[in-house]
Amino acid sequence: MQMKLFVLRGMLTIFFLFSLGLSGTESDESQAMFIQADSLRVTADSLNALGDSLFKAGEVLEGIKAYNLELEVRKQLVSDSLPPLKYESIGDYVAALENRLKVMDVFTKVGAAYSSIVGDYKLAIQSYKESLKEGFIWLSPESPYFSEAYYNLGLMYRKEGENDSALAYLRMSIDNIERSFSEILTQGRSITQALNPEEILSLAGKPLGYTEEGFSLAMRQMKEPMSAYEQIISLLVEMKNPEEAFEYLERAKMKFFKESWDSEDSLSLGHGDLMEKTEQSKELEKEVKDLEQKLADEKTKPDSLRDTSNMENLSTSLANTKAEYFKVTSEIQADPDYAFAVKVDPVQLGTIKQDLPPGQVLLMGYASQEELYLFMVCCDGYEVRSVPVIRDSLDSLISKARYLCGAEHVAELYKKDRLLGWNWAQDTTAFYAEEVGVLKSTLAELYRYLIEPVEQNLVSAQVVTIIPSGNLYYVPWGALLDCDDGGEPLFLSERCNWHVMTSAELLRCIQRRDEKKASVERKVVLVGNPEGANLPYAETEVSAISSAYPNSTILTGTSATEPKVVDMTPESQALHLATHCVLNPRDPWDSYIQLASTEETDGHWTVAEISGQSWQRMQLVTLSACETALGGERPGLEFESMAKAFSLAMEGPPSIVATLWPVADESTKEFMVTFYKELKDNPKSEALRRAQQKLIHSGWYSHPFFWAPFILIGEWR
User: Fold this and answer.
1) 418-423 contacts, C-beta under 8 A, 24 or more apart
2) pLDDT confidence of 492, banded at 50, 70, 90?
3) Across the chain, what does the average pLDDT equal?
4) How far apart are the first and last CA of the chain?
5) Which domain holds residue 4?
6) Same domain assignment for residues 342 and 435
7) Which residue in 563, 618, 651, 715 sits closest to 269, CA to CA?
8) Claim to verify: residue 335 and residue 356 sit in the same structural domain
9) More confidently predicted of 320 and 342
10) For the segment 605-633, what is each residue's pLDDT rounded down to a tens digit?
11) Domain boundary among 505, 524, 549
């Protein structure tokens, strides 16, 4: 490998001596410069590949030497002090930009080597700063290209113990990502608009913005790992700044959610004016792209064929269309629903504290790689607790609880005739040791991590608002129990009134809307066992509920179609869906509620379709039986997407009853009948808690499988 580096360095020296002697006509000189520049680029690319190979082979120091040689080559293409071989000098501005970015990339690779392998953080900082310095020549400091460099510098300064510098760079990294992503989603901007268009792309004859290539490049730059948020949250907690730590926790959740909105998707947001403006913006965006392409085509024609008048007309039309486009998108951004979904603008801790009513406590959990953070907020103040449990251990514990309570494991208990009439009492049997004791200890351990550090504030609260993140969405919160292994279990649903919010942003949504009545009024749409669902007890369930709400409408079997449900819901106060709800973690907007199919509809009422409804009177949607495929790369996003869809449809904060795992048909009927009976005189969260308590103490359905999966998402009153 050392010999390869020596040979390449010698060849490079000969090449430059030869290039200095070139002469001829202006045309020949121009051609020669093209040849020299491309030869340098090929040499640099070869050195980059060699450096990569050396790194993979474990020869790190030799790899760094290869990268440094590459930098010597690439600097020939960017320096003013050498012969004019720069791509700028020969008019290839796109190649010039690519070369600059590759120089940045090499400095980043060298910095990473110094950091992770050599362990010299000062040299790593120096290399990362060189990367930024190179990029600042052509790119705006706000360009998405710099988010990684800012993050790396923040990480290095933290390792050096310089927390103030670390915090500054981590802030810059996250601000950079969020700003760029919001611009792309709300205005259709490409990464080219982060450049200096007068000096670069206009000279290259390329259209500004809205290009497919620019969008794809920008999207790749937006995929900064969540570790930036983890680092800054951990650092702020360490620096005893819980207010800002809480803000970044919310920002992390909001960024995580908004990435599910694909700006190339055909999803129509909201209804009324918002929907019309969204459709108008899409049409204007198409016009902008079309005009830009026509203008670009005209510019690339030979001088003899170029129509100057047409170019002027196209330029004028493009400017006017862009102005109208940005006007419409600005109006869309002003809409609170759209801002909630796309813009990172989290509620701050101080604002939450001021707006929370007495008796309501907010509990937000965030599991980082190294520890769990619990933020507790009430009108009297706030605090943050760090719990010493790593994310992998907590995720494993959550998965274990879900398995022990879930349908697959419970089916085996049922076959052994040990499920119904579940007994928590300690004894010396093998069944207790293998099943009961294991379940109790698992739920108790989750309680110790998630509730015990702040339990005194929670159990005395009127209502606890739980805002999970990541895999904490899948915690069966109501089943977390406080007891010694041999004691009688006391579940969280017996100790306090609780509900789930997908984000603190929903609190803002609640606070800006008129408070709705706590109880469900008379008009309820009850959907039970649509054709194909195979849930016979669901029909009995909706029939029993209807007896308490005489003006309700029942749709079952072949009558429970999407057109009929859509037609009945606008004037209703509650929608009860005793059918399957399939939550898709890979494509949350394709999650759907199963209804009866028709010649025009497939029976899959998707989240995307729900978001376009308009239910001004709706207060509650109950998903009585879920088939869930939860988890994946973006855990919890399917719940956030479902909540957002209903928020858009309901013109306000949603109230959704959903389940964490598939539930039994008959026990669900018992649960729901109790829930709706209690709902006539109690807030939604209290009605759900009482329904859970009834099954806990029923004897027959006391296993958490039957009652623990039910959660209330959104408005609790």
Assistant:
1) 419/703, 419/705, 420/700, 420/701, 420/703, 421/699, 421/700, 421/702, 422/702, 422/703
2) very high
3) 79
4) 70
5) 1-11+25-138
6) no
7) 651
8) no
9) 320
10) 988 788 778 787 888 999 887 765 566 66
11) 505
Compute how many other C-beta atoms are within 10 angstroms of the C-beta atom of residue 444: 18
- Residues 72/48, Cβ–Cβ less than 8 Å: no
On whether both 297 and 380 belong to a single domain, the answer is no
Backbone φ and ψ for 387, nearest 5 degrees, come out as -115, 130
DSSP 632-652: SSSTTHHHHHHHHHHHHHHTS
Phi, psi of 622 (to 5 degrees): -115, 120
- In this structure, the answer to whether residues 340 and 361 fall within a common structural domain is no
- Count structural domains, the chain: 4
Check whether residue 85 and residue 50 sit in a common domain. yes
Q: Are residues 402 and 455 in the same domain?
A: yes
302: in domain? yes
Amino acid at 439: L
Tally of CA atoms within 13 A in the half-sphere of 162 that contains its CB: 14
Q: Which residue has the tokens 């510019």?
A: 299
CA distances from 259 to 220, 223, 342, 567, 641 (A): 12, 9, 8, 32, 11
**Same domain, yes or no, for 415 and 333?**
no
User: How far is Cα 90 from Cα 74, in angstroms, rounded to an integer?
Assistant: 16
Where in 196-284 does DSSP place strands (E)? Answer: none
Six token digits for residue 702:
């006391």
| CATH code for the domain of 670 | 3.40.50.1460
